[in-house]
Specification:
The protein is α+β, with helices and mostly antiparallel strands. The chain has 2 helices and 6 strands; from the N terminus they run βββαβαββ. The radius of gyration is 18 Å and the shape is globular. The two termini are 32 Å apart. The relative contact order is 0.19.
Length: 161
């Protein structure tokens, strides 16, 4: 395809049985009339695989999915639309700081909000299970609040292809 110089383009590749792959192309760095090749690596959908969703945002101590999360959630919806028999488990995690029970409740509300978003995108509710872990499965247990931010995450596990 021909792309106009000086812009950013998001290119997405998808295929049935594979996870969606996305690349951002910055044509500001290109020489006019130069051919650029972009290769996409499509990873097969594997039962049991856990995939971390990046760029899923909630206000602190809140469960409403923020608009900045939609692009990432739309990618998950595309994967599920491309693989109509796929079933997933959405897993929610919070930081280890705070009341353990409150964190568990918060993570459950967050995964429910993610599930609701996917259902609104046309994914059948029965294809999505949820599990809240609160702060029981941290990736990082020490450091600053910014260091421990990786604990606040949403992941999905493929249950069925």
């Amino acid at each position: 395809m021909v792309l106009k110089g000086g812009y950013f383009y998001n290119c997405t590749a998808s295929a049935k049985g594979y996870l969606v792959s996305e690349e951002t192309i910055n044509t500001g760095k290109f020489t006019p009339n130069k051919v650029f090749i972009c290769n996409f690596l499509l990873k097969p959908v594997e039962v049991g695989e856990t995939i971390r969703l990046h760029n899923i945002y909630f206000a602190q101590a809140e469960f409403k999915v923020l608009d900045a999360s939609y692009n990432e959630l739309d990618k998950l919806a595309k994967i599920m639309q491309s693989n109509p028999t796929m079933e997933i488990l959405i897993e929610g995690h919070t930081d280890i700081i705070g009341n353990e029970n409150d964190n568990l409740v918060l993570s459950q509300k967050r995964v429910n909000a993610v599930k609701e978003y996917l259902v609104k995108k046309g994914i059948a509710e029965k294809r999505i299970q949820t599990k809240a872990y609160g702060g029981t499965k941290p990736l990082k247990t020490d450091g600053t609040d910014q260091d421990r931010q990786v604990n606040r995450r949403v992941e999905f596990k493929i249950l069925k292809k």
